[in-house]
Each structure stands twice: as structure tokens, then as C-alpha cells.
Amino acid sequence: MIHWLTGFITRAVSNRASERDHDMKCPACGCPEDKVVDTRVSKDGDAIRRRRECMECKNRFTTYESVLRTEVMVVKRDGTREEFCPGKLQAGIEHACWKRQISERQISDIVKTITNRIDQLNQREVASTRVGQFAMEELEKTDSVAFVRFASVYRRFKQVDDFLDEIKGLNQRD
Asked: Of all helices (H) and strands (E), which one includes residue 146?
């Protein structure tokens, strides 16, 4: 498959119908021919952002290229398994950070750090407790209130004393 660089028409060249079915298509009109008008590497260097313009309708749209991670399964407390989903982790961290002075960028960085730590384990399966521990370590560095909020769900606090004990432990670590 050949793709031309910036400024040229991007079109997959193939004689096999199965490959032609996977051409990049304009989201507005479905035309498979577009040109790349801008290419940039993300700040972290983990993705390439391309601005494209459809040759048919002139609609502009953005595509991202990134390396696909190895599938990691999370083993939950009850023994069930599900694919690791950074979006689910981010939602939990956003919930813990609600109405705190923590930017979306900081939350995104926390999720990337945790995702990288999971990838560095080089394991096909990781316990949900490990993921939760990674999240708590990152939140503890960022915001103590968000840390306690996350801990209350992760550790399944049942009473006010559970909160107080965690806060006492947090104060002792500071």
C-alpha cells in the first residue's frame, strides 16, 4: 500500500479489493481521495496528527496515527477479565478530580503515566488492584482530596472512619 506525503493525493494503490475497502474516506461525502495539508507530531511524540482535505467536497478533517498497544486484560476482584481501557481509567480519575483545581491536561498525563506503567510490566494480564494502586500513587502526588475520593471507591469505604483513617495515613506520609 502506498501513501503519498504532504500535499499529494493520498490513495492506497492495490489490486486486491480487500485492501481497497480500507482506504481513508472523507467523513462528509465518503470519497476515498484526499490530500494531507498539515502533519504534526504530538507533544509526547506518541502520535501523528494529520489535517486532510477531501478532493471531492473540500471538507477538512483530522486523523491520528499511533502505535497500537498490546492488548492487556484486567483481572477484576471477582476473577472476570476485561480489556484494559484507558478511557474507563480516565473517567474514574475525572470523577475523583471533580471540582478540584486539576486541569484536563494533568488528568491526561496521569492516565498516560499509568498506561505506560502497565505497558512496562510486559504482561498480558494485570490485576485491577495493581491498576488502582498505580492510580492512587499518581493522585497522591497530584491532589490529596482527589486521592481520598479515588481511594474511597477503590478501597470500598463503608464508614466515615474509613475516610478518617485514610486522611490520617495521608497526613503521616506528608
From this structure: helix 144-154
